Amino acid sequence: MQFGIFTVGDVTADPTTGRTPGEHERIKAMLAIAQKAEEVGLDVFATGEHHNPPFVPSSPTTMLGYVAARTENLILSTSTTLITTNDPVKIAEDFAMLQHVADGRVDVMMGRGNTGPVYPWFGKDIRDGIDLAIENYALLRRLWDEDVVTWKGKFRTPLQSFTSTPRPLDGVAPFVWHGSIRSPEIAEQAAYYGDGFFHNNIFWPASHTRQMVDLYRQRYAHYGHGTPEQAIVGLGGQVFMRKNSQDAVREFRPYFDNAPVYGHGPSLEEFTSQTPLTVGSPQQVIERTLSFRDYAGDYQRQLFLMDHAGLPLKTVLEQLDLLGEEVVPVLRKEFASLRPAGVPDAPTHSARVAAARETSKEGTQA
pTM score, two decimals? Predict the structure, then answer.
């Protein structure tokens, strides 16, 4: 099982000081956080994609290329690549290039995003959101899987004998997660291709997460990729920790109360009782995270949101120390002991290359 962090890259005032970091400072902080993730033994760093203030990660592959050069083991991912408003040709080329730069330590999470105005900024209509996601991804798959592509669709100019360059590393495209909070069509899309499904698991109760993951698992089996238990599932989550749970609650409360997304709404106590947000001791985070298995089944990737709502870099790095030293080692051991035989490991480039070669060998022998 893979453990890591994801960032949305918000530039938010620290409510305890009133200070707002500049864009440069925030970007540098995100890079420091990514490198810290490897230092403390995490597996994955993922960045969102946004094109509007107060967010800064408009060019994920630029950021991840930098991180690739300064890490050795960390898997580099997006926590949203906008399949609706990005050109599939550019996605194919950018992420294949990043694969080569990072020696295969790359995957990608497709999503529609949650910022409606982004569609006209890139010449698209939000009413076409689902159709864009379906058509663009179908083209992207062909661009990665086929050396020469001739294609015609509804939303972009046709392609005639086109080759995307560079080709995917070792002939194996980045593993794709389809991220969604509320759209069953995206769970269906992930199942159809046999890709991973990532449920953000931040704002919704366990009953909703169970419904979305169960739909994906059943449809994954329907399309012949394996049993429901063999489907590849990832979950998000939010935590804030201190050694003493009362200290965690007291310190995090002003950040929660003023957060851009959920501030000035339900109380911290209401939100933690109704969603997976966990504010407390490392042991409480361990127990809460292990409980995700009760409604999502055995899954392959767990990412945490750590650096939002104006939390200063020093505090985020302290959180990562706790996560890497006290939480993740226990979660690795406990999830491994609970996982039945036959549930697949989290996908890696090396494992997928080996599987592709074995499939090719069997085909040759047949």
Answer: 0.94
